[in-house]
Amino acid sequence: MRGYIPDYQFITPDSLGEALSLLANEPQKWKPFAGGTDLMVLLEAGKLTHRNYLNIWPLKELRHVAVDESHVTLGALTTYTDVQANPVLRTEFPMLCQAASETGGLAIQNRGTLGGNIINASPAADSPPALLAYDAQLELSSSRGARWIAYNGFHTGYKEMGIRDDELLTRIRLQRSPRPLIHYYRKVGTRKAQAISKVCLAGVLLLRETEVEDVRIALGSVAPIPLRCVLTEDELRGKNLNPALIHTAVRELATEISPIDDIRSTKDYRLRVSQNLLADFLTRPQ
Ligand SMILES: Cc1cc2nc3c(=O)[nH]c(=O)nc-3n(C[C@H](O)[C@H](O)[C@H](O)COP(=O)(O)OP(=O)(O)OC[C@H]3O[C@@H](n4cnc5c(N)ncnc54)[C@H](O)[C@@H]3O)c2cc1C
Fold first, then answer.
1. Mean pLDDT in residue range 47-72
2. Ligand 1: distance of its center to the CA of 210 in Å?
């Protein structure tokens, strides 16, 4: 049954500074409310246990895409629609745009934010594999200041992550590559649209002739957290990309992921599909 609205407190700070002061003064009391697309589902189901929300949605400081010579930096409130509309993201970070275009329907894309997707921390979320494969960095801000951390390692367990109670996720930074990368993003769900992933793989590859100069691989829905597959990457880096190496990498992947049976899929299906997607990604350049 839907949560009883008068039980909830919802306040709108005038600025990022005011939001951070409220979090600093009563850090356990307030939780951010961005687009609300995850939080409203909990409210409707009567499962929204936390009662006090800071409405950060109107904070313009957190909604922008800034491009400089070395990086593209996105405010945490950047929506999926904003992502798809940006020409630099479309050209240089196509996996993020593809993830955005395959997230929910238009209403969710207009309202759902990248920051909310990261902090909601669903292992089945669609932007985290792309952000991990692009080796994104996160800016966490509090009234004490801001700190940048690597996104890889941010999720430490199911719905557990390295953000403090008085912090907001404020920006996401992506390093631009001086050389063209091969990008591969595949979300496998029950149907093409409005489906939660059974498996999602994002990968980027930099080749020097046939040698793997660099590779980053991330998967969703195969572990309690969105996972960067560093062991599989290590197996590939610095070696000649050939069928034998692809076979070895596919075998290594099975030791690195820990898919489970649930209502959306089975452990065996997720393992097989993850391996097939990895082989497909690595076979394309040949
Ligand atoms: C019909 C439907 C379809 C969906 N389809 C998909 C899909 O295909 N793929 C997918 O990945 N997701 C999907 N979602 C989930 C959801 O839309 C996304 O996770 C979205 O990005 C959440 O962003 P939000 O701004 O709405 O988050 P909110 O609901 O506002 O917040 C989510 C969580 O993040 C916290 N939070 C938000 N912003 C910040 C911040 N800046 N700093 C600190 N904490 C913050 C909140 O406190 C809350 O805990 C779907 C949801 C619905 C209802």
1. 97
2. 40
